[in-house]
Amino acid sequence: MNKLDEPTVAEQNVNFRQIGKPRTRTDAPGKVFGKTPYAGDYVMPDMLHARVLRAKVPSARMTRLDVSKARALPGVASVLTFRDLKIGTVATDIPGQTGFKRRATDQQILVDELVRYQGEPIAIVAAETVEIAQHALSLIEVDLEPVPGVYNVFDAQKPDSPKVFGTDNLVASYKVRKGDVEVGFAAADVIVENTFTTQYIEHAFLEPEVGLGWEDEQGVINIRSSTQAVETFRYIADAMGLPHSKVRIRGALVGGGFGGKCDVTVELYIALLTKATGRPVRLGFTREDSFYGHGKRHPFIITHKTGFTRDGKITASKIDITSESGPYAFMSPYVLMYATEAGPGPYLVDHVHIDSRSIATNNMYTSAFRGFGATQACIAYEQQMDEAAKVLGIDRIELRRRNLLKTGDAIATGFKVQSAVWTEECMDRAMAALGEKPKDKGPIKYGHGLAAYQQGYGRMIWLHDTAEGWVGVEMDGTVLVRSGMTDIGAGQTSSLAQIAGELLGIDMMDITVYNSDSSTTPLAGTSSASRGLYMSGNAVRLAAEAVRDRLAARAAQHFGSTADDVDFANAQVFLKSDPRKTMPFKELVATCASEGIHRAELAIFRAPFGDWIDPETGQGQVHPDYTYGAHAVQVAVDTETGEVTILKSIGAHDIGQAVNMAAVEGQIEGGVAQGHGYALSEELIYKDGCLVTPSLSEYLCPTSMDSPRIESIVLESRSGLGPFGAKGIGEPGHTPAAPAVANAVADAIGTRVFDFPLTPEKIARAVRTARKAG
Amino acid sequence: MTNRKTLKMTVNDTVRNVEVATNETLLETLRRVGAVEVKCGCEKGDCGACAVLLDGMAVDSCLTLTHTVGTRAITTIKGLGTAEAPHPLQTAFAELGAAQCGYCTPGMIIATQSMLTHDTATPDENDIRHGLSGNLCRCTGYTKIYDAVLEGAKAMRETEAAK
Amino acid sequence: MIAKAKTANDVAPLGGGTNLVVEMRASGVGPATLVSVGQLAGLRGITIADGTVTIGAATTVSDILRDPRMKQVAAVLVESADVFAGQMIRNTATVAGNICCGSPAADLVPPLLALGASVTLRSGSGERTVPLDGYFTGYKTSVRKPDELLTAISWPVPTAKSASRFYKLGRRRGDAITMVGVSVFVSLKDGVCDTVRIALGAVGPCVMRSKKAEAVMQGKAPSADLIAKAAQAATAESTPIDDIRASGEYRKEQVQVLVQRLLTQSLESLS
Fold first, then answer.
1. Contacts of A574 (CB under 8 A, 6+ apart)
2. What count of Cα atoms within 13 Å lies in the side-chain half-sphere of residue C179?
3. What CATH number is given to the structural domain containing B35?
4. Residue A73: burial class (beta carbons within 10 Å; 0-12, 13-18, 19+)
5. Best of C1, C11, C39, C88 to disrupt the B interface by mutation (most B CBs within 10 Å)?
6. Cβ(A234)–Cβ(A246) under 8 Å?
């Protein structure tokens, strides 16, 4: 009770019946019994099968395209090329809620003249069987004349470089100017400068992209697909010259997304072939298609020049950021914005100077990936903090402690964060859980590493994000929720059931959630940007509260009390002041039904809206709010072979309020494993634009043999903007894991590998180099 | 071209006659006949999503030519248990949050069952790491899978002991 | 794994199929007839008799792991089988297939070479047994004729005064393709190295024995210095390439590290 003197701890909402507990998710039974239909599990009578012909080279001019033999092949229903397209281009922007679309960043749907990346689609085929479609691809005659391409961001910025995007290969650029960085450096006793690089990585969701489309009796193109974003129906309609009302995306439970299923992929090909043939069309990407067919995580090059006083206070932070966009914009400008905003990390810095840019090349295009650019930013600033600690001779944790943002401080963009900033407590809890470092054994050296972070959740406020949600009660007292939110495995629908259940006193397992249908479930935006629970959860909360208020008013009348005295639990309605006064929920509902009291509500939740940050200074608000925390890792490094074994991996995060504690831990644990892979083994290798790792035996995600038990420490400040004070955790759990591994490895070997991933070879070489240098 | 032949197959205790091309994989056959609970993740044996039991032994169905299955009984996740009569591993995976997106789950549970049958009924965490290293999971970081396997194995031993 | 005939346009033996099925489907072509060796019950099994271990061509990697006798008669093969792919592949892939696919990174071949294994090749005209050392003639080539089937693998039960080790260096721990695989076998007699076999994987066109390294040790009393010299000889004899997993230079360094380490561990276990 005496916690009231801690202003950041909200005391409301602590007496939950379902919220905050580790509950079995509503979607779990279907999954463990093999009953959940994924998008690829649907078939229809008379269905055709589609395949995509992709360019084998990354930069070329198409001088001839002849599909006549493919069209003539028996069993082929349709072969489409750019010549068959009415419009030819499709948006690469966020399918947001505002109706506005970025200009001049569309991509060609099928190669018209120029091939800009390896794997760019040239033709799509629909046939009676997959085998026939595949055979048809081999009959398409294409002449591709090589055109000089550009395969790294340095060359791409040279004046005489081939131009892939616009007139200068510049996809986006930003600035942050806070205080006066020269004044800050003048005040510094020590200046530390380092450059950190990150690699291309792949989402590697277990379910490759897949969908099934058909045209219905109203002329609506329906597409059942594996997507994070049903809102892409707008872009598909635009690309086909159809009214938005004539394209409908119906999702299914998705076999993993991680940002990789936000953009339009199979859906548009399916829509085009469905329209062309008048028959249902199924297109399932092979794993190889998936490697070539969706945007990857951006490689970044980040240089930090940081001024410190002798006692470790940061005086100035100058940061230069370059990301690789590939030939099309997609999420690159936004990802760059996240990296820029997060640039100096969760530290209070008065003098900040950031220049950032995203550069086009003929390597694979890049787009959303869990953490957006904030993760790459963290990989740089947290390694920089460890390097600075070494130079300053100050303990790494202590150096951070002296600089951490506190609740109410302004971040790099000048915005004062309103919610709790509990980074320090997270850092201490994570380090305490790490325990003692084992003693080195011969060539095996042990290391500890930590990374703290700041990650925005929700969309950038100038995107004016909204989400709708519907809650209704059937006459028998059963509860339905409708939300456009896609469920990519994080428990999105389950959490909505839990929220509605908490408010209406019905067990979450008894609630039915309809989701992910762009036409019949109220649109809630994409499951990305750690916004799912924040946005759709709030919308469902508002709707459930409205229904509850009306039911409570009627119950109050029945009990002869006031509405605020009425409570709902265990499918019963009762008075808080006298819990013996009770009635079954379904009886109350039946009464309401007979009296015409509205038992349903469609609510809209609006995130804070605002304007773009100042383009000259980068000052202003970018995100509605931020999540803070820290991750600690213990590794053993074989200094001769360079192999790394992660022994302990502990994430401590203030997530505001857990809705389903098991799901929160699951988000942290899964994000962490992706961070382990990011740091150590995952890498898409492009040689002159050609991918040389297009399989899961060459692209190395962590297996169980690579994965220690991951520990989650969950703190609840109840200060977030999500339902009941929740903050986003989908991305934050991931963001600090990779730099924590890097810092642990550097601690073990006494030197640092600055280029991700930290392969055995790079580590062994760094050890040898350091030994030679003495 | 490829020959087709009608084979007698036993899938989850149901015997059926299926016409199969000689180059067809068990994954293709199973999904074609409606056993879509068997998931396709890579078709190269790199991910384990398509694992099924052949006479109780887990194999990647994408690497198994249907013609080589012979008389061996095929068991998919649906053959292990149902909502009405759940297998202890299914219960543990559901209750402990070991299924997130759920796409790896059928293969993961199948591989676990095979490991518990053929390698050890009393696995420790390292046994689990070893037994499941051919099943990629991209959502859970494996932690809750370790928990679920330990718990499920314990429940299986208790069921066995009660018999 | 497969036992694929070198020029098998029409007939090929199929072991577990974990390589061949993928290859066939990727290329779209395959032999018209596959002989499913993996399902020939008569070829599956492990026998230990008269000081010789023999495993049939249909014996899977899991069979090796699940036979408790194997730890006594082929601990080094068990070590390798343990880090071989994932469970489903181990349940399916055959030891013979791992030999016949001819990959320079084949994980089971270095330990079999270290054990001094031989293979039995059978054709319509008869049967012959050839040492595994010398079986490979180059990248994915061997002395096996197209009409020959690899039916069995055998090796002598190691003597008490011997030790062997295997290590697989991969870019990740689980289900990885080997960057460098090393296996060593040492036996001591009267305080000097009697039999020494050092096998190297993924550092040449095929898995190979480093005869020069072995010669350094042979007949000498083991010492740290001698081991270092043997490791150097093995490094000199290796001819690794650069690929996506590692550079040739790193592989060479690791031959040195691992040969030295495994010889040291083996000899320490004997002292």
1. A566, A567, A580, A581, A582, A583
2. 27
3. 3.10.20.30
4. middle
5. C88
6. no
Identity of residue C91: N
Structural domain boundaries, residue B75: 4-79
Q: How many Å separate Cα A256 from the centre of its chain?
A: 11
In degrees rounded to 5, what are phi and psi of residue A277?
-105, -20
What b-and-e string marks burial along A403-431, b requiring 16 or more CB atoms within 10 Å of the CB? bbbebeeebbbbbebebbbbbbbbbebbb
DSSP-based helix, strand, coil % in chain A, nearest 5: 30, 25, 45
CA distance B86 to B101: 20
Nearest CB to A34; choose among B37, B139, B142:
B37
Tokens for C261, please give them: 């380490």
- Residue A680, min C-alpha distance to chain C (Å): 8
pLDDT digits (tens, 9 = 90+) for C174-230: 999 999 999 999 999 999 999 999 999 999 999 999 999 999 999 999 999 999 999
Candidates A48, A79, A114, A92; CA nearest to A265 is: A92
**Phi-psi group of C218: left, alpha or beta (phi > 0 → left; psi -120 to 50 → alpha; rest → beta):** beta
Identify the domain boundary among B44, B79, B114.
Answer: B79
What are the chain B neighbours of C82 within 8 Å (beta carbons)? 130
Contact with chain C for residue B127, Cβ under 8 A: no
Considering chain A, what percentage of its residues have pLDDT values greater than 90? Answer: 96
The matching CATH number, chosen from 3.40.50.2300, 3.30.390.50, 3.30.565.10, 3.30.365.10, for C162-270 is: 3.30.390.50
Q: Please tell me the class of the C11-156 domain.
A: alpha beta
Place of tokens 């002296």: A402
Is A444 within 8 Å of A763 (Cβ atoms)? Answer: no
- Mutation site for A-interface testing, chosen from C18, C167, C171, C259 by largest number of A Cβ within 10 Å: C171
Q: How many helices (H) and strands (E) does chain A have?
A: 18, 30
The pLDDT tens digits for A142-162 are 999 999 999 999 999 999 999
ipTM over 0.95: yes
Inter-chain residue contact A33 with B145, CB threshold 8 Å: no
In sign, the C-alpha dihedral spanning A288, A290, A293, A298 is negative
Numbers of helices and strands, H then E, in chain C: 10, 13
From the options 3.40.1180.10, 3.40.50.620, 3.40.50.300, 3.30.365.10, give the CATH code of A2-35+468-606. 3.30.365.10
What is the distance between the alpha carbons of residues C251 and B104, in angstroms, rounded to a whole number? 34
Which runs of consecutive H residues, i.e. helices, occur in A393-440?
396-401, 423-434
Confidence check: pLDDT of C33 > 90: no
Residues B99 and B137 placed together within one structural domain of the fold: yes
Residues A664-677: pLDDT tens digits?
999 999 999 999 99
Residues near C87 by beta carbon (within 8 Å), at least 6 away in sequence: B58, B111, B114, B115, B130, B131, B132, B133, B134, B135, C62
> Can you give the residue ranges of every domain in chain C?
11-156, 162-270
Structure tokens at B146: 């370790």
